[in-house]
Write a structure and sequence with these properties.
- There is one protein chain.
- The termini are far apart.
- The longest helix is centred in the first third of the chain and has 34 residues.
- This protein is an all-alpha fold.
């Protein structure tokens, strides 16, 4: 009996390690977009990812056919939402990194954009996960997209040593 539990534990550890090897990069990217940190310096995103993966590992034996990536993503989003929406000023009061593509968005808008546009989660699923109506998710996504599209373009860099001449 003891050997069976040991073997199950070894199997679980191998399966989880394989899952992390395949999914951690994408989940870290999503977490970095959520926290709007610099991709090279993202301690809050890494903390979010660590908590999401720990929760996924704890629930591994109970998944029974459920997609572990989906569980980890839901956990990542839920933890971000709890942290960002509870405290004024965002997650731990941190300001977005100015170079982040989603820095112009608030935490709720970032969460909706990452889930809907980056992760491809359906509107209804996003609404259910966040405890919002589908209409509210749609409005947040449209507003965030409009904000991102009207962001001022960065000054054009010199190409081949030649500066662009304004017309």
């Amino acid at each position: 009996m003891r050997e069976r539990h040991v073997l199950q534990g070894v199997r679980r550890d191998r399966e989880f390690a394989a899952f992390v090897a395949g999914a951690a990069g994408r989940l870290l990217h999503a977490a970095t977009l959520l926290t709007a940190e610099d991709p090279d310096d993202n301690p809050r995103a890494r903390r979010l990812l660590t908590h999401a993966l720990a929760h996924t590992y704890a629930a591994w034996d109970r998944l029974r056919g459920e997609d572990p990536y989906d569980l980890a993503r839901r956990q990542l989003a839920a933890r971000f939402a709890r942290g960002a929406w509870r405290r004024a000023g965002g997650l731990h009061g941190a300001r977005p990194h100015p170079g982040s593509p989603l820095a112009a968005l608030g935490p709720q808008e970032r969460l909706v954009v990452v889930l809907r546009l980056c992760e491809g989660v359906a509107e209804e699923q996003t609404a259910a996960l966040l405890g919002l109506s589908s209409e509210r998710v749609r409005v947040l996504c449209v507003r965030a997209t409009a904000t991102l599209l009207r962001r001022p373009a960065a000054p054009s860099a010199a190409v081949g040593g030649v500066k662009a001449v304004p017309s």
